Every structure is written in C-alpha cells, then in structure tokens.
Amino acid sequence: MRLSRRRIVLLALVLLLAAVPPAALLLGQPFYVDLLRRVMIFAIAAVSLDLILGYGGMVSFGHAAYLGVGAYAVTILAAYGVHSGLVQWAVAIGASMLLALAIGAISVRTSGIYFIMITLAFTQMLYYLGISLDVYGGDNGMRLPMRSQFGGLIDLANGTQFYYLVLVLLVLVLLLVRRLVDSRFGLVIRAAKSNEARTRAIGLSPYPYRLAAFVISGGICGLAGALLINHTAYLTPDLMHWTRSGDILFMVILGGIGSTVGPVLGSLVLLVLENALSNWTEHWQIILGPLLVLVVLFARRGLGGLLWRGEEDA
Amino acid sequence: MNLQLVLEQLLNGAQLGVTLFLMAAGLTLIFGIMNLVNLAHGSFYMVGAYLAVTFYRWTGSLVLGVVLALPATLLVGVVVEVIALRTLYERDHLDQVLATFGLILFFNELIAIIWGRVGLFINLPDWLSGSVQFGAAFAYSVYRLVIIAIGVVVAVTLWYVVARTRLGMLVRAGASNRTMVAALGVNIRLLYTLVFGAGAALAGLAGAMAAPIYAVQPGMGDPVLIQAFVVIAIGGIGSIRGALAGALIVGMVDTLGRAFLKPALATLISPPAAQSAGPALASMLVYLLMAGVLALRPEGLFPARGH
C-alpha cells in the first residue's frame, strides 16, 4: 500500500478521533466527545455528498432532506414503540434511498443549474411537509422517546460507546465510498463527469449510473440522519432547513472535493470553527459568511488542496 | 364555494404572482446574461423591505419609503457585484452557489445586528388600507390591487426595455454571445453591473411592497428566493416570458391550493384526515407541480432561445 499524503492525513485523522474520548476524560472536558461525535455524523453526510459531487459532478443542494428523512424514520418508529436499532436504521436508510430515487429520477435527467435548483426545491418541500406534520411535532418538533436499542450490545445513552460506534461507521462509510469510486461503477460515474459525450460514445448511458450513485448517496446520508437524531434526541423540521444543505456542501468544498478524506476534514474544521465563533459572539455568521466567500474565491481546492497538492487523484 | 371567495383568492394569487415575478425576473436575467446563480437575490428582497420601512419611518410617507428603497437597493446590488461577484462569472455554478450562500449568511446577520431579530411591522396609510367595492357583494384591499398594478407596469416596462431599446438589444446580445458583444466594443462589465443592479432593485421593490403585508425579519427573503427558483425552473431559465408565466402559475397554484385544497379534500376523505392532509399537501403543491413540469419538459415551459 502506497502511503500517499492523503492516506497519512486520513490515518492521522482517524487516530486523532479515536483518542478524543480518553483525552476528554483526562482533561475533564466531556463536551468535546459530544462535539466530535457531531463532527463525525456530519462527516458521514458530507462524505455521502462528495460521492455524487466530487466524483459524479452532481451539485446536490438538498442533502439535508435525507438527513431529515433518516431522523423522521427513527423518531416515527420509536413513537409507535419500535425501538430496535437495526429495524430503525434499516428503515431510515431504505426510506432515504426511496426518496433519493424519486428526487433523482427527475433531477438526474437535468444538469447544472437545474439540478441545483430542483434538489433545493424538493428539500424545501419536505421541510414544509415536516412543519405541517402536527402528529410528529410540526413546527416545534418532538423529543425522541428512547434512543435506538441494540439488545444491550451497545448503549447509545453511553456517550463513549455511541462515539466509537459513529467512528466505526464513519470508517466503514469511507471504505465503502472508496471501493465504489475505484470500481467499474465508479469509473463510469467519473467518466461521465469528465466527458459525457465520450462516455456515451463508448456505449454507456450515464443516467442509470448517476441515479444509482444518487440513491446510494441518499442512503448513506439517511444513516447520518438516524445517527443525528440519536445524538440530539430531538426531532425538528430544521434538520431539513435549506441552510443545512448549504452547510454540508460547504464542508465538502472546505475540505477538498472528490478526495474521500476531504469532507471529514471539512466538517471537523467547520463545526469546530462554528463552535469557537459562537462562543465568542452571537453574530458569528457575519464572520462565517465572508469566510465562505473567501474560501471559494481563493482556496479553490479546499484545505485538502493545501495538504496534498499535486498528488494523483487515486 | 361562493364566487366572492374565489375572486378574492384569484386576486391574492395574482398579487403573489407579481411579487414572485419581480424576484424571478432579476434572477433569470442575471443567470441568462452573466451565467451567474445568485442565491443572495433573496437578500436584496430583505434589504429592500428593511430600507423601505426605515425610509417610511424617517419621511412618514410609504410611497417615499418605497421609492427611496429602490435606488438604495440598486446601490447595494452594485456594491455586492463589484466587490464579491464580478470574479465569479467565469467560475462554475458550484462556486457561485457557495459564495452567494456565504453572502446570505452575511446579510441575514448584518440585518439582525442593525435592526434586531424581532420582526418589524408597519401600518398602511389610510388611503391604502381600505378596500375597493366591486358591485354589491365584493370588496378587495386597495393596497393589494396597487401591488398588482405596479407589477403589471413593471412587467410591461421590462418587456419594452428588453425588446425595444438599444440597452435591451445589448442585454439580449450579451445573453447569446458575450464575447462577440465585447469584441464589438461594448463595455460588457458596465452592462453586467447595470443588469445586476437592476435585478437587485426589482427584488428590492418586491420586498419593499411586501413590507406592510408580511413580517419584516432577518431571513425573510430565503423562502421567496426558493419559490422564485421554482418559478424559473417551471418557466425556463433565462427567459423573462417564462418567469412571468411561471410566477403567475406558481402564485395561483399556491394561493388557491392553500385556500381550497382542504375543503376539496374533505368532500373526498373524512374531514379530520383532510384537516391534517390539506395544509401539508397545499404547501407541497408548487413543488409537485414543478416536478411534473420538469418530468415532461426538463427545460421548462418557455426555454430561453440562443442557448
């Protein structure tokens, strides 16, 4: 295995994340376990977006929808007394994939600006749907009655156990995305991104491949939603607010698009920065906004571009 | 269902349609000509509303407030274009979306710092707050009729400027081949800045006129922006005709859906079920409409020519 700089960054990041709970315990700062668990959950969402954005060139401005559907699936099942984590999470992933299939069937046929606007609009639609679902809290949201249960094997109420579960899932998702990108399937997606006409000319229709990638991405993001609702234990339609889709997109760009590890780095930096800024001033967004503009204008390849500049995309 | 209610909702739909058209026209022009996706367009709507309220409070006249808000929003638009967006024209849509998303965060927070997070409310002056009597049984708000009238005037003016003047000719030429227009000696940069400022002013006008009807608060432009996106996706991006048709369709469908979907459902399914399904479905209606239109015509109803 060639130890590229990107792999080193990834390994260092995973080791760093694994060391957080004992370090937090030592420092007497349990808050950091909470913060970094949130970071990793959003990293899973960002990695799922990077699969279609970085490798497929599909700019989805609606990934908050799958986050929301995953969370709603878990909460609704829990409200009807189904607490089994396996069932809940499977339904969360399945429902997100179905939704991605429906949205993708329409949006993947389009490209560019249409794709951005359609994914944005559908997420807004689900946000309004969430608000009007009075049975499940409507605008105010509702508490998750009980965290997902895994038959005493893993206790999500235990912050450290939950933390390591999320870490393991993040690593699994990273491996899965890597495998997908390197497979024949991934090659077609990447080919269609770099030159659609040539891809067609060699006899491959990009549409089914793109749609499949879109659905897989939605499923992974749905898993992140199931984790997020267990993390916050409170369901609100704000999970699907369109600015959240923007946040996830920003994480991918900030970390470095199409690089697997980039989105993890991006969510780490964005959420830690957000946390630091919001401790400092209530008006932290007035700093974050222009910062975002500057990143887009001057750091086009994100933080990853600085760390592994010039390396082959492999 | 009585006739007055239907008439009233039709006029409400026209009023929403006009507001959406003012937003969508700028958005679609800026996209058609500069190839720029501008998420911050909703911020100009918000800035227009706040400036109108402020000028209204200073001068005591709503008309003056709205009239002063127009050039002020245009100026804000020009400043934003020159400082932040000019360099983005050549970039891909992803960069544009993210940078303008950053601008939204900035504007929402800036407004919250200057005016606070609590919504502002203003009262209409007496001569606008009444209603006009049509026949014996139907009356409609004067102010909403004024909004519809202004919208029609703006739409006709915009059509005239784009289709019949030299400036409009340059705008149309810039949309179909900007390199050629620049090669012919037209200052394309200035033209872009002008178009951007005009688009911002139109959004500001929509916001300023909406100020007395809706709550003026930070982030008020965001839902309108997304609806305007739906409008231009339905109408066809880059086409003003499409923006007009899309705005009226979305305005009508949204308004009529909210008013009549619940009673209509109640005749089909049990009233309690309609009570909860009606509003949910009504708020989703325009998006479902968009999905339907795009499934049949991915380029929208009136695709722009020359692309």
Structure overview:
The complex is a heterodimer of chains A (314) and B (307). Chain A has 314 residues and is an all-alpha fold. In chain A, 72% of the residues lie in helices and 1% in strands. Chain A has one domain (5-307): ABC transporter involved in vitamin B12 uptake, BtuC. Chain A contains 14 helices and two strands, in the order H-H-H-H-H-H-E-H-H-H-H-E-H-H-H-H. Chain A has a two-stranded antiparallel sheet with strand order 1-2. In chain A, helix 3 (31-54) packs antiparallel against helix 10. Chain A is globular, with a radius of gyration of 19 Å. The mean pLDDT of chain B is 89. The termini of chain B are far apart. Chain B has one domain (3-218). Chain B is mainly α. The A-B interface holds A 53, 59, 61, 106, 109-110, 112-114, 116-118, 120-122, 124-125, 128-129, 131-135, 242-243, 246, 249-250, 253, 283, 285-286, 288-293, 295-297, 300 and B 31, 37, 84, 87-88, 91, 93-95, 97-99, 101-110, 112-113, 222-223, 226, 229-230, 232-233, 237, 276, 279-280, 283-284, 287-288, 290-291, 294-295, 298.
